[in-house]
């Protein structure tokens, strides 16, 4: 990835973090990018949600997109 695309993805993650902040949560957003495309994204959500961690939401979404044949993710 180039610095320009890194900024693009970080801008999206920051927008997601603002969504969490608007809900009164800790402002954390996350994106997973594969082949220059966002394949998963998430943000901190209220504890009552099924998965309050943005990385958990991203992992679930990306796994459904790339399946078990995809790369091993490390966060």
Description:
By secondary structure, the protein is an alpha+beta fold. The protein is built from two helices and two strands, in the order αββα.
Number of strands: 2
Distance between the ends: 17 Å
- Mass-distribution shape: flat
* SSE class: alpha+beta
- Poorly predicted segments: none
Main sheet attributes: strand count, strand direction, barrel closure? 2 strands, antiparallel
Q: What is the residue-averaged pLDDT?
A: 74
Give the DSSP E fraction (strand runs of 2 or more residues). Answer: 15-25%
* DSSP helix fraction: 40-55%
Sheet with the most strands: spatial strand order: 1-2
Rounded radius of gyration (Å):
13 Å
Along the chain, the helix and strand elements come as: HEEH
Number of helices: 2
Quick tags:
alpha+beta, 2 strands, two-stranded antiparallel ribbon
Write the layout of secondary structure elements.
Layout: H1 3-22, E1 29-34, E2 37-43, H2 54-66
Antiparallel strand pairs: 1-2
Concise structural overview:
With 75 residues, the protein is an alpha+beta fold.
């Amino acid at each position: 990835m180039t610095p320009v695309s890194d900024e693009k993805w970080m801008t999206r993650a920051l927008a997601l973090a603002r969504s969490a902040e608007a809900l009164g949560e800790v402002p954390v957003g996350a994106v997973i990018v594969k082949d220059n495309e966002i394949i998963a994204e998430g943000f901190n959500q209220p504890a009552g949600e099924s998965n309050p961690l943005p990385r958990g939401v991203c992992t679930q979404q990306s796994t459904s997109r790339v399946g078990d044949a995809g790369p091993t993710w490390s966060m």
